[in-house]
From TrEMBL:
PROSITE patterns: CLAUDIN
TM region positions: 7-27, 79-99, 119-141, 161-184
Chief location: other
GO molecular function: structural molecule activity
Localization per record: Cell junction, Tight junction; Cell membrane
PANTHER family according to UniProt: CLAUDIN
The protein, known as: Claudin
InterPro entries named in the record: Claudin (IPR006187), Claudin1 (IPR003548), Claudin_CS (IPR017974), PMP22/EMP/MP20/Claudin (IPR004031)
Stored Pfam families: PMP22_Claudin
Keywords: Cell junction, Cell membrane, Membrane, Tight junction, Transmembrane, Transmembrane helix
């Protein structure tokens, strides 16, 4: 029962992490314009994401523009896109595999060993998915931080971490944690030892030996 609860907890955490990765990928707030140290009061906030750049006016109106050409994008941005899309696809595969191996499902009930292996395999896929998203968000955040502290970067072109990065970090952590719980949910096999053989006791001879 304990392993079943741990398995269910791992699946829920991994599923929530996968949903968070999708939300983070779609959000345009990967980095937001910073006005730290600048006395200019601006009437709009600028955001940039993986797929579009947006400007939010003081009235609350948001205008977004999708990036026109894939070939004109920076190589780092293209790599971040690829990692996030790969994380989403891996999470989708891990979702189906883990569902097949769940104890509460009736699939593969005849072979419990294969069923447990499917759950573990799904957990491994979720871990890889979370690692891919973690690398993508950390890499993007590192580039934002380096550009922010670069003295040659103009003040009006500096950016800070957006909310999508924080969601991506939290989601990748949930996916890795949930996948780890799925991998640890299978009970260990108990080693069966052959029963110890009893040795016959030497019967005490009551008779006398005659030559």
């Amino acid at each position: 029962m304990a392993s079943g609860g741990l398995q269910l907890l791992g699946f829920v955490l991994a599923f929530l992490g996968w949903i968070g990765i999708i939300i983070s990928t779609a959000m345009p707030q990967w980095k937001m314009a910073s006005y730290a140290g600048d006395n200019i009061v601006t009437a709009q906030a600028l955001y940039e994401g993986l797929w579009m750049s947006c400007a939010m006016q003081s009235t609350g109106q948001i205008q977004c523009k999708v990036y026109d050409s894939l070939l004109k994008l920076e190589g780092n941005l293209q790599a971040t896109r690829a990692l996030m899309v790969a994380a989403i696809l891996l999470g989708l595969v891990g979702l189906f595999v883990a569902v097949t191996g769940m104890k509460c499902m009736k699939c593969m009930e005849d072979d419990q060993v294969k069923k447990m292996r499917m759950a573990v395999f799904g957990g491994v896929i979720f871990i890889i998915s979370g690692l891919a998203a973690l690398v993508a968000t950390s890499w993007y955040g590192n580039r934002v931080a380096r550009a922010f502290y670069d003295p040659f970067t103009p003040v009006n072109t500096r950016f800070e971490f957006g909310s999508a990065l924080f969601i991506g970090w939290a989601a990748s952590s949930l996916a890795i944690l949930g996948g780890s719980f799925l991998c640890c949910s299978c009970p260990r096999r108990e080693t069966s030892y052959p029963p110890a053989r009893g040795y016959p006791k030497n019967a005490s001879s009551t008779g006398k030996d005659y030559v």
